[in-house]
Design brief:
The complex is a heterodimer of chains A (298) and B (392). By secondary structure, chain A is mainly β. Chain A is built from 3 helices and 19 strands. Classes of the chains: A mainly beta (298), B alpha+beta (392).
Chain lengths: 298, 392
């Protein structure tokens, strides 16, 4: 089972309990945007893809594919600084086995690999002027939608590449397909020391209204509600023995929110969802909840 | 949390060692990796022992005779050496200091927005001054078989022959490794914070230990932990803290086959990967997130100490670029602030590469290396099957 952790839950802190509000801040979404397997895979933020791009299943999970069902790969620009100061042109005289996913001719360029100190620093030394105070770029989207900080870019942008305007995914990954690749193949995932990585699709995170500490986690391709540790929440009626039915504690919360209410029927306050008591699974696998239970989904 | 883990005690028990440690007279430690001549404690009944690595530094043989030409030149030195005697004398006059600074700093830059540290392959620089001494601390990695590329081996200060540590030969005259007084320099302390913070912290878990003197079969788990060691007011690691191994990236867990002979634990050659992440470069350069000690054909040679600690070495062949990853990530700043000539270092590493031969090109792509380590007793929990990372 794979469980990845987008945590974007819109919590409306109607409770008077400050503690809950503090806890909620610890579940900020991961800031690292990546496709390589050694880093968290960021969820998609849109269902609007470049022309011809779709999502297809592979044995290791869904990936983006082109109009011919060939898996899209990202050339991770962050791994190529050793080659040159603008890795967007790394494939100018190489990468013969790879075909860029080009945007339509004339498409406006709206992203660039961020500058380092490089040329500006050299010039300041040459001219005897003060050195630059920070890397190039303001980090913000500029008027007209140009992104010089890939961390702040939307899912799909267009960069000036060696063969023309080329699609980029999640700011860092110049999009290619492998020539001669089979349908939805993942054969080259991680090639060349994680420089080439399949563009893995993680569904957009649903917005839910839930108590602080409750978040969404992805399990088997679908989101479930989970506690702060990522263990799924479930509801249902327990027929003794109830050893695996750990109540979702409401702590000091006294008021509900939306479909969530607080029950004081038991030894301590427990969250209920649509009037049914909520429990926390002892395992991260949603399939491990008791047979009579129902996993909570957003 | 730590204390709670001690209380529930699911880890390695070294209490037997502590129990008798006060009875053992304090003796000076033997040489690194050498057999101890004092009696050692009896291992715990369950044969499980844990340690946290408290020191992890590149060893040098102290003294100025190793580098008779003085420290390896910095960028400024290399620039001055490239000039005629007259021009050198002119630029060294105080009134020309600004011109000299401008000129040597500009040597760090090349065309297309390149610099000697971010793109060291794009520059052809003079070689570093290398260690000229016959002595080095390290391990016999090729075991005399010479499977790598031709190289001159060292002898250890205690007389052991066949020591492979060409990284020391290349880097051992750099000021970051050896001060002008010939003693350990910045490297000895520079990475200490990483081991004290949980960022690079290493632990060792031994299983199946029947004797600290001789045991033909010991399982060695050598890995990283995110848990932060307890330190005293001087920063010294305290024993008996509890740690849990993590193999979740960027951390690693290595399973090694060990044996103990005359109080020295050695492991069979295997790849050993350990965290060495670097923050420089920021988001635009992700290599720092993946930095690691990556010892190919790696080995441990650790000597049990009467006080229950371990001292010794880990060694192996490192990919060449790994040796300069940190300054390379620092980019132009490494060059013009610290004066580091990454291109010269990489060129010299290539020259002395002695392992990881590429079968396609016949070139060696790795260099023999060793790190000196000390470890103190600890409670070490292994990764549970549920925790095993699926990303590896």
């Amino acid at each position: 089972m794979t469980v990845s952790g987008p945590n974007r839950v819109r919590s409306k802190e109607r409770q008077s309990c400050v503690i809950l509000a503090l806890v909620a801040t610890t579940f900020a979404p991961p800031t690292t945007l990546a496709q390589p397997v050694d880093l968290p895979i960021a969820p998609a933020t849109t269902t609007n893809y470049p022309p011809g791009v779709a999502v297809a299943k592979t044995p290791t999970g869904p990936v983006y594919v082109d109009a011919k069902d060939r898996t899209l790969y990202g050339l991770d620009l962050r791994t190529l600084v050793r080659w040159g100061a603008d890795p967007a042109f790394y494939c100018k005289d190489r990468c013969a086995d790879w075909q860029p996913l080009l945007a339509q001719a004339g498409t406006a360029i709206n992203i660039a690999f961020p500058q380092g100190f490089g040329e500006r620093l050299r010039k300041s030394i040459e001219d005897g002027t003060p050195p630059p105070r920070g890397p190039g770029g303001s980090g913000d989207a500029k008027p007209g939608g140009f992104y010089d900080d890939p961390l702040k870019a939307p899912d799909w942008t267009v960069i000036a590449g060696p063969a023309g305007p080329q699609w980029v995914y999640k700011g860092w990954h110049m999009v290619y397909v492998r020539k001669g690749d089979g349908r939805a193949s993942i054969r080259y995932d991680g090639a060349e020391n994680l420089t080439w990585n399949t563009l893995k699709f993680v569904p957009p995170v649903p917005e839910v209204e839930a108590p602080a500490g409750v978040r969404t986690v992805l399990a088997e391709g679908a989101y479930v509600l989970a506690d702060k540790d990522g263990d799924p929440l479930f509801t249902g009626t327990c027929a003794a023995p109830c050893a695996g039915w750990k109540p979702l504690a409401a702590g000091m919360a006294s008021a509900g929110m939306g479909a969530w209410t607080v029950s004081n029927q038991g030894d301590r306050a427990q969250w209920t969802y649509l009037g049914k008591p909520v429990f926390v699974s002892q395992e991260s696998d949603p399939g491990s909840v008791p047979a009579s239970a129902q996993v909570l989904r957003p | 949390m730590m204390l709670a883990r001690v209380a529930i005690g699911a880890g390695a028990f070294v209490l037997g060692l502590y129990g008798i440690a006060p009875l053992i007279p304090q003796l000076s430690s033997p040489l690194i990796g050498q057999p101890t001549r004092t009696s050692l404690p009896v291992p715990p009944a369950d044969g499980v022992m844990g340690f946290v690595v408290s020191s992890f530094i590149p060893p040098i043989v102290p003294g100025t005779e190793a580098c008779p030409g003085g420290p390896s030149p910095k960028l400024r030195d290399a620039y001055l050496a490239s000039l005629s005697a007259g021009e050198r004398a002119r630029l060294l006059r105080p009134e020309n200091a600004k011109e000299l600074e401008r000129n040597w700093k500009l040597t760090a830059f090349g065309p297309d927005d390149t610099n000697v540290c971010s793109q060291p392959d794009r520059f052809d620089r003079p070689l570093l001054s290398t260690v000229q001494s016959k002595l080095a601390i390290g391990l016999d990695l090729d075991r005399g078989e010479g499977g790598g590329c031709a190289h001159e081996e060292f002898a250890s200060p205690s007389g052991a022959q066949g020591i492979d540590n060409q990284e020391y030969r290349v880097m051992g005259c750099k000021l970051e490794w050896r001060g002008v007084d010939g003693m350990q320099s910045d490297q000895a302390l520079g990475t200490r914070q990483f081991h004290a913070s949980g960022e690079w912290t290493q632990v060792i878990l031994l299983r199946g230990v029947d004797s600290l003197e001789n045991d033909d079969q010991v399982e060695v788990i050598y890995g990283n932990t995110p848990d932060r060691p307890f330190v005293d007011s001087k920063g010294k690691f305290l024993s008996s803290a509890t740690f849990t191994i993590s193999d979740k990236p960027p951390r690693h867990r290595n399973v090694l086959k060990g044996r103990i002979a005359n109080g020295v634990l050695t492991t069979a050659p295997a790849r050993i990967e350990l965290t060495a992440t670097w923050g420089q470069g920021g988001a635009r350069d992700i290599r720092g997130n993946r930095g690691r000690y990556d010892f190919h054909e790696g080995m441990l040679r650790l000597t049990f100490q009467p006080d229950g600690s371990l001292q010794g070495l880990v060694g192996g062949y490192r990919p060449l670029f790994d040796a300069i990853l940190s300054p390379s990530l620092g980019g132009a700043g490494s060059a013009i602030v610290a004066g580091i000539d990454c291109a010269a270092e990489l060129k010299t590493l290539h020259k002395y590469a002695d392992g990881m031969r590429d079968p396609r090109t016949g070139q060696c792509t790795g260099i023999s290396s060793a790190m000196q380590l000390s470890a103190v007793p600890a409670f070490v929990n292994d990764v549970t099957p549920r925790q095993m990372s699926s990303a590896k």
